[in-house]
Amino acid sequence: MTTLHPGSAPPTASTGAGPATVSVRGLSHWYGTGSMERQVLQGIDLDIHPGEVVLLTGPSGCGKTTLLTLVGALRQVMEGSVTVLGCELKGSSRHERQLLRRSVGMIFQGHNLLRCLTAEQNVQMGADLLPDLSYRARRDLSREWLRAVGLSDHLGKLPHDLSGGQKQRVAIARALAAHPRLLLADEPTAALDSRTGREVVDLLKRLARDEGCGVLMVTHDPRILDVADRLVRMEDGRLWASEATLG
Amino acid sequence: MTFWQGRRIPLAWLLLTRQPMRLAVALAGITFAGILMFMQLGFRDALFDSSITVHKLFDTDLVLLSPRTKSSISMTGFPQRRLVQAMADPDVTGTTPVHWNLLLWRNPKTKGTRSILALGFEPRDPLFIDPAVTALAPRLTQKGRVLFDDQSRDEFGPVATWFREGRTVESEVAGKRLRVAGLFTAGASFGADGNILTSRETFLSLLPNTPPGSIELGLIRLRPGADPARVAERLRALLPEDVSVLTKQGFLDLEMDYWRSSTAIGFIFTLGAAMGFIVGCVIVYQILYSDVSDHLPEYATLMAMGYSLLTLLGVVAREGLLLAIFGYLPAYAAGQVLYAVIHAATKLPVAMAADRAITVFLMILVMCMGSAAMAMRKLGDADPADIF
């Protein structure tokens, strides 16, 4: 299946090579109005390149999730510029954001699987977003992805019957099945024990790299920081040490 | 190919069927509402049908009536010459004049009087569909003989019972002595509690004030293959304004419309059906609303994945459609069974008519789709930004 492992995937990214997957310039964001107004983001600058894994850490309430929702086109940009996959989100319409989201895979803290669908059907909800593919091709693609995350024996199981790690792996397969070029993950290991969390993150990194897909991951988990190509720390709505590259 | 590309995971179906208890409650509610509507509308139509028991006896294609005739209890006369004039049309093969009026019948047992519907016709004329009645008609050639409807109400006396026992049954109408010469079957209706058939000669002797040459009903039979509606059109142009030309169905509709518009029967049963409709709406809305509420985070996830709001509205709409179809089928089956039971118990002419089956289905469809539309408003609360 060529869509799975394109041989032309760009190598591990280094800053400055090719068009950025995500380019954030001077992004600020507020919640509330009047005296209740509270600024959560202050002049953020951030770039993510194809195949690059960027980890975002910081104390809770510092605005990490807000940044994630803005990059994921889930929120309207107020000030500054956010360009995702070549599309400027400042002033974008609801419909433009909806279409862009099809190219952005999202993995949530909870697995957020559809309870009434089997593992295979959940993944296919992702694959169904791909245009010009027959039902059978999309189903085969879903099975292929479940195999890639090591769940080929659990195709017909409901989320209810899967363990936490298995559910998160189904969620990864679902996010990748739509063939995204950017993957956003919000504490994907929060609900998992350390060994399972490690496996999930390794899997995520390997598959994202094979797909040439940029990754922005919010995490509190110190045990997984080493998967990052780049570590970014956020505090009080500002980014720090944004160029601190780890091994 | 387009179909296979368009095919998706049947989300609406899975949302419904993975919660079998909730689905069962929803279907039970819809089925109950459907049965209620079938019963109420069935009774209503049956009562209206019973108002035309006499009208349906006639073997005719077109009828002539006075334009002032509004129902079977107020038949007004018109000149019999119009029937002769109608013969001028090449498609008309035969005409039959009929007298039609209400008379006071004396109960031969209690001697009390009661209004009965009397029809007067030439005993040789072929005007009935039922050959049994036609076979009895020659008995009326002797003056003062009548045929009595054995489905008439008991207040007219034990006429049918006595006659079958071989007794000579005589009554008095308008001061004239009448003898029952046979029994036929029609049935009581709104307008008349009982019916008798008699010859024109006897009829006119009972109502001597009838203007000569005046009849209340003219039957017109057409050449086989002729289009009654077109012949009626031609006759309307041909005949003066003092008669109206109706098809047989128009004749039946005139009577049913009279009872429908001038009595509360239609209103009462329609109200009953409306209550079934409302109960169904409440149940389906409850089910779909809690379904959307329970799955709100999942709907929000789908929106975050790039599914449009329209796609998700489609899912809810399809849930409504599935509920309508699977709630209707058992209601239809139960309706068939109950109609058979009611017909056996009450002799009311109640059966599953195609138009009623369609009406109830459309009402269930509106019920489910309307409830789905209401439940959809809840989908607006699904904000994909909230799920991170």
Report on this structure.
The complex is a heterodimer of chains A (247) and B (388). By secondary structure, chain A is an alpha/beta fold. Chain A has a domain at 22-103 and 183-188 and 213-247: Rossmann fold. Chain A is built from six helices and ten strands. In chain A, strands 6-7-8-3-9-10 form a six-stranded mixed sheet, with helices on both faces. A four-stranded antiparallel sheet of chain A has the order 2-1-4-5, with helices on one face. In chain A, a hairpin with a 6-residue loop joins strand 1 and strand 2. In chain A, helix 3 crosses helix 4. The radius of gyration of chain A is 18 Å and the shape is globular. Helix content of chain B is 51%, strand content 17%. In chain B, a hairpin with a 2-residue loop joins strand 6 and strand 7. In chain B, helix 3 (20-50) packs across helix 12 and helix 3 (20-50) packs antiparallel against helix 13 (354-379). Chain B is built from 13 helices and eleven strands. Chain B has helices at residues 2-6, 11-17, 20-50, 81-86, 131-136, 159-164, 200-206, 228-238, 248-262, 265-294, 296-305, 309-346, 354-379, and strands at 62-65, 78-79, 92-106, 113-121, 145-149, 170-173, 176-184, 195-199, 214-215, 217-222, 244-247. Classes of the chains: A alpha/beta (247), B alpha+beta (388). The A-B interface holds A 65, 68-69, 72, 74-75, 95, 98-104, 106, 108-109, 112, 114-117, 121, 124-126, 128-129, 132-136, 158, 174, 178, 186 and B 1, 4-5, 7-9, 11, 14-15, 18-19, 295, 297-298, 301-308, 384-385, 387-388.
Number of helices of chain A: 6
Order of helices and strands of chain B: HHHEEHEEHEHEEEHEEHEHHHHH
In the residues of chain B, how many domains can be counted?
Answer: 2
* Beta strand count of chain B: 11
Provide the helix percentage of chain B: 40-55%
Largest beta sheet: strand ordering of chain A: 6-7-8-3-9-10
**Which percent bin holds the helix content of chain A?**
25-40%
Look up the CATH topology of the domain at 22-103 and 183-188 and 213-247 in chain A. Answer: Rossmann fold
Oligomer: heterodimer
Structural class label of chain B: alpha+beta
CATH top level class name of the domain at 22-103 and 183-188 and 213-247 in chain A: Alpha Beta
Radius of gyration of chain B: 29 Å
The main β sheet of chain A shows up as: 6 strands, mixed
List the total number of helices of chain B: 13
Largest interface: A-B, 37 and 26 residues
CATH architecture of the domain at 22-103 and 183-188 and 213-247 in chain A: 3-Layer(aba) Sandwich
How far apart lie the N and C ends of chain A? Answer: 32 Å
Low-confidence stretches of chain A: 1-17
